[in-house]
Design a protein that fits this description.
By secondary structure, the chain is of the alpha+beta class. It is 26% helix and 21% strand.
Length: 318
């Protein structure tokens, strides 16, 4: 697996290998008082990891395969992160999360520039763990700061199970090689997998949109907008009213994409935001209501899908 594939899933399967765990469900509410504790074990592991990574990089030429020693270094770091994230959420210190995320992303970028290749399962495992750090930080922020009435909506994930393959923010584009703003998150998906709308809303755009390929744009209450890009098929039409979880299209790799995945964006007042600030699952517990679970569903009364959109029951289309 090349580094160009780190930001989009490869092949038709779309998912990480079965040995790579998906993002775990975090509790929706704290089970007790928040008592953050710094982790000296994590700091020690991060320091050792960066020192060894730098030493290995000094021994090879650009374009060389990643040496086995650096592979083991990454594996040890992943194990240290697993141990850190196994502690109760209430005792996690956000400073540790920020520090770990910064190190993982910086080291991954340096390795991407130097090495020509990285073992596929390892690359997937690193991306998943960075996603876990982000989800944990988002969970703590929600607990520490009650939601404001004007804040972002509580969104469901467009696909399930959830594997984040690229995060929001600046990154080196896997195709152009340029530093660009990544205005959303990328989610692993199977080719043709149904993609559900994150909340009730009205379809603003449905069709081709340049680098985004086949895209659906939906407006929600409070002038919030979500986008679903690189679809293989668009199954809704402009002006259609959707309920939370209704299928907007099928996952694909149209537009500027290196593999099958769903690129998901959140916008408000003309500015993009990190969707992880609003997505409910997988932080919701297993007993969360259907309105909070990340389900892409076909209308039970009319499951037929066509390239022209869903066929709703009589009277359901506006």
């Amino acid at each position: 697996m090349s580094f160009e594939e780190l930001y989009a899933t490869s092949g038709d399967s779309g998912f990480a290998s079965t040995s790579t765990p998906f993002l775990p469900r975090e509790p929706e509410r704290a089970r007790g008082p928040l008592a953050p504790e710094r982790s000296p074990e994590l700091e020690s592991a991060l320091t050792a990891f960066t020192q060894q990574a730098q030493a290995y990089r000094e021994k090879v030429q650009r374009g060389s395969a990643m040496p086995a020693e650096q592979v083991r270094n990454w594996e040890a770091m992943n194990a240290a992160l697993d141990a850190f994230l196994a502690r109760p959420v209430e005792h996690t210190d956000t400073r540790d999360l920020t520090r770990a995320r910064g190190v993982m992303e910086a080291e991954l970028e340096q390795d991407a520039r130097l090495y020509g290749d990285m073992p596929g399962p390892l690359a997937e495992a690193v991306v998943v763990r960075v996603g876990r750090l982000i989800v944990r930080a988002s969970t703590l922020r929600r607990w520490e700061q009650p939601p404001e009435p004007s804040g972002p909506p509580r969104l469901a994930w467009p696909v399930e199970p959830v594997t984040i393959t690229s995060l929001y923010g600046d990154r080196w584009h896997p195709i152009t090689g340029q530093l660009r703003r990544h205005s959303g998150v990328d989610l692993a998906a199977r080719r043709g997998q149904p993609v559900g709308v994150a909340d009730r809303g009205v379809v603003l755009r449905a069709g081709w949109n340049g680098d985004h390929g086949k895209m659906v744009e939906v407006q929600h209450d409070g002038q919030w907008v979500t986008r679903y890009s690189h679809l293989s098929e668009v199954l809704v039409t402009t002006g259609e009213v959707l309920a939370r979880g209704d299928v907007v299209g099928l996952a694909g790799d149209t537009g500027l994409a290196t593999g099958v995945h769903v690129h998901f964006e959140l916008w408000h007042d003309g500015a993009s935001l990190d969707p992880l600030e609003a997505l409910v699952a997988p932080e919701s517990g297993p007993d969360a209501s259907d309105n909070e679970r990340p389900v892409a569903r076909m209308p039970a009364e009319s499951p037929v899908l066509t390239s022209q959109g869903r066929h709703p029951a009589a009277g359901s289309r506006p």
